[in-house]
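agent> step 3/5: call structure_predict on target 'Alcohol dehydrogenase' (Chenopodium quinoa).
agent> reason: downstream docking stage needs a structural representation; sequence fetched in step 2, passing through unchanged.
tool.input:
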Amino acid sequence: MELQKNHKADVNTPKRITAGKPLHCKAAIAREAGQPLVIEEVIVAPPKAHEVRIKIICTSLCYSDITFWKLKDFPGCYPRIFGHEAVGIVESVGEGVDEVVEGDYVLPVFIADCGDCNDCKSSESNLCSKLPFKISPWMPREDSSRFTDLNGETLFHFLSVSSFSQYTVVNVAHLTKIDPSIPPNRACLLSCGVSTGIGAAWRAANVKPGSTVAIFGIGAIGLGVAEGARLCGATKIIAVDINPERFEFGKKFGVTDFINPNNCEDNKTVSQGWGKTIVLGVDKPDAQLSLLSMDVLLSGKSIKGSIYGGLKAKSDVPILVKRYLDKEVRLDEFVSHEMKFDEINKAFELLIEGKCLRCVIWMD
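tool.output (status=ok):
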């Protein structure tokens, strides 16, 4: 499929008389760990209280989908509908939902932003305490699924989104209404990886003009960090990666210097008493960070974990959308491939082989 041009979202889809009723649609199901997805007809239940059923327009593939798709043991569980970077249109809403209405253009996000709890009201955190982040196979408010196959078997959710389905049900705390002027094949990128990178520089690290930023690993998230650092006014953006081919590509996002750690001599001359290390992305469930206590104490540096780059979806994502529409934020360059839904396994292969940055999948 040829690379799509920027298409404005069609939010004027004729109303269907489907509200309150189960919907039949196609979904890509992972029935076993690491095995190709199977596109099947599934049944999507109507939304319950505080829930919204949306029609997915585009979904992009994130390496977190690959990481959990490979897991044989919990939190891996099957059969499951993966996918968590997406954009769609509200098809129907459940009881108590007044934030969005049918026809709204929305972005689902894997972390909640309820707007009511102390954490959501605070500028110090983007982690909701009412609906805390967890890698659960269920809906956020109750241990149940909105998906079944035609044999009645329960299909598990993924990261509160499950966007590898033409329709999905999402808690309203995981939805952000956005400007329909942004094309769906660009909007979906803000649902996870690219926003995580930009947010890490903008919100988590609070990069100041004139700063020096080093990025270890410049895949999609790392390039997002570079973009965020550029927007914040960093004057030196150093990419640290073992693949020198990524340097030329990184220049598009403001990377000024490249370091291959395999070709470096040991150099311990570093700044003292200041500096931040921001940890991003999803690692294996049992992965560990090893630090010497005295190194942390005597250097005066800080290390901080950052989920979704410290962004609050409902307030920060619309800002990123506007900055893209104002031609300040670069999103186009992140899309290396665009494919039809029935090519989703090919998209998996490209990402596993390191041959794509972001692959956008059109659901229709």
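agent> step 4/5: record observation. The chain has two domains: 23-191+330-362, 194-263+271-307.
agent> proceeding.
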